[in-house]
Design brief:
There is one protein chain. This protein is of the alpha/beta class. The chain has two domains: 262 residues, 4-Layer Sandwich (Purple Acid Phosphatase, chain A, domain 2), CATH 3.60.21; 107 residues, no CATH class. Strand 7 and strand 8 form a beta hairpin. The radius of gyration is 27 Å and the shape is elongated.
Length: 377
């Protein structure tokens, strides 16, 4: 049996006030095209389908379109669970009626114990169990038991699932959580404060495959079959070197066989450029990826007028600007040196920055006279 494990679509996300819906649509089109050329038995989305519990209309429309293409046109079942960004009740609306169309949304604890069972010649029956994202308070209230951490909650929930498994079936578990020791990124919303959101991988050892969501970097933790597929695309500049995409998983009668990362490419990558302004402007003239979303770190040690305007002339999608170069050296001495300069010297520098040329002799005399008159007054 082959199936696709993906997670953290975050449909509807804004990044530095820029909508990413067009990029998300492009990478999802690549996913659909891959399934069309390489048929699979199921597609899993391990939480954070939307970026917020009340998603914008464009995000709902995009999800509807993708589900229609995968479940309808390609006749491939999809299995979804809500993540911490999703509203479980909203996402799960109409779940019972959608099962017959091949869309399985596991959004509550009752559905968690009712697996989606798929069959293949190579693996026999495979039962897909989903644990909808739940904080310890929700689990404590639902099962009337004392759990205080996410680890306690997951230990309880995986035990409940195990009580309903069959030894004649292979078991796949879908969960949205933070496995202890895994690598995080800046774009993930913390599940709790102080480390109580960490979950031990030991709870997942007895499954044949564990499809994890929440962490945005593709990785395994504890065993090759306990994996994060990573997010659909890059959602922070800290992820600039990560390879985004999805995981194609294969099971047979003995259980886990392989997991292959398939890369997706967004129209706009997220990159960090670092250097002096003139150098960055020059490279931008020939940069084939000049439309990427950029964080620029300027290393110039002097003040620059309107740097963002100049950068966007060659890199239209500069979204954030940092100026660490201004902090290099002995700051107090630099500040003191600037303050010790005369008004006319500072105006000359300002004029050069604005007009890209020096004051003429006549202009210099005129501004000198004005400054002298103001000083006398």
């Amino acid at each position: 049996m082959k199936f696709i494990h993906t997670s953290d679509w975050h449909l509807g996300r804004q990044f530095h006030n820029v909508s990413l819906i067009a990029d998300q649509s492009a990478v999802l089109a690549q996913l659909v095209a891959f399934i069309e050329e390489n048929p699979v038995d199921a597609v899993i989305v391990a939480g954070d389908i939307y970026d917020r519990s009340v998603p914008p209309t464009v995000a709902i429309e995009l999800l509807n379109q993708v589900i229609h293409q995968i479940c309808g046109t390609l006749n491939t079942p999809m299995i979804l669970i809500p993540g911490n960004h999703d509203g479980a009740e909203r996402l799960g609306f109409g779940a019972e009626q959608m099962k017959n169309a091949g869309l399985h949304i596991i959004s509550d604890f009752k559905q968690m114990l009712e697996p989606v069972i798929l069959r293949s010649q190579s693996a026999g029956e495979v039962a897909f169990y989903g644990i909808p994202y739940s904080d310890p308070e929700t689990v404590r209230a639902a099962f009337q038991t004392s759990v205080t951490t996410h680890d306690d909650a997951h230990q309880l929930l995986t035990r409940k699932v195990h009580e309903h498994t069959s030894p004649t079936q292979k078991q796949v578990l879908i969960s949205h959580c933070f496995v202890d020791g895994a690598i995080e990124s800046e774009s993930e919303r913390p599940l709790s404060i102080g480390g109580s959101d960490r979950v031990s991988h030991e709870h997942f050892i007895d499954f044949d495959y564990v499809a994890l969501g929440h962490l945005h970097q593709p990785q395994q933790k504890g065993a090759p079959y306990i994996r994060y597929s990573g997010s659909l695309m890059k959602y922070s500049f800290s992820e600039q070197h990560q390879k985004k995409g999805f995981t194609r998983v294969e099971l047979n009668q003995d259980g886990f066989v392989s997991a292959e990362h398939i890369e997706l490419t967004a129209p706009h990558e997220m990159r960090i450029l670092e250097g002096e302004l003139n150098t960055i402007l020059e490279q931008g003239k020939t940069d084939p990826k000049h439309l990427d979303y950029l964080l620029v770190r300027l290393m110039d040690k002097h003040a620059i007028l309107n740097p963002m305007e100049k950068l966007r002339a060659v890199y239209p999608n500069v979204l954030h600007l940092e100026k660490p170069g201004m902090l290099i050296g002995v700051e107090q001495e630099m500040a003191s040196a600037r303050l010790s300069r005369s008004e006319i010297d500072m105006f000359r520098d300002f004029f050069v920055e604005v007009q890209d040329c020096d004051l003429s002799a006549e202009q210099d005399r005129a501004i000198s006279d004005i400054i002298n008159q103001l000083t006398r007054q």
